[in-house]
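Run folding on both entries below.
>entry_1
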Amino acid sequence: MEELKAAVRVEMYAAELTDLRFGGESLRGKCPIHQGENCSSFAVYPERQRWHCFRCGEGGDVVDLCQAVENHAELWTAMR
């Protein structure tokens, strides 16, 4: 799984899902999981390769984001 995470950067995947803008140490945008109206509810931290939704408190790495956005029941299906 670490090889996959190294190959797919979270900010690149997130940018395919929502418009991101710089906001200090993070990139901010609308949450691609909830499709809300708040342009700052979703944060991506490129240095740490993590993301966080301030609306629901979910967060994680690129695989966790894929699982949440694409509604995978199991983590291994998101990895595929």
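>entry_2
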Amino acid sequence: MNLIDIRLVGTQILGFLLLLWALRAWVWGPVLKGLEQRKQAIAGRFADADRAQAAADALKAQYEQKLKGADAEARARIQQAMAEGQKLAGEVKAQAQAESQQRLERAADEIERERERAKEGFKLQVVSLSIRAAEKILRQKLDNESQRKLVGEFVDEVGAL
């Protein structure tokens, strides 16, 4: 009793080997080739993604640098504007003080001129009164009491001015 038939086993082995060879030639090769192509496509996509990520990181760094530069520039402009404002305020203050000083000087000059005019007017009045008093004295022959009365009137007129 031969349970194993060698011919049958040999035929099955030969059929299995032929099947493996056929699968390898027509199926396994294209499947491996397809898998390799897919592996390369996935690797290419990862490489593209890495390049895109690197480009995005570089762009992000560039934008952050520009943002820092813009912040620094904005701060510099604000400081410059503040300095110009302070300078302008100082100039306006100095100009206002100069104008105020000029007005004070003009007012003092005007007061001095008015004082001189008043003195001149007073002198003219004194002269006029003196002339009138002299005229009165000359027109009258006066005694001592009349002269005192006349001088008193003159002094009263001068005091009223």
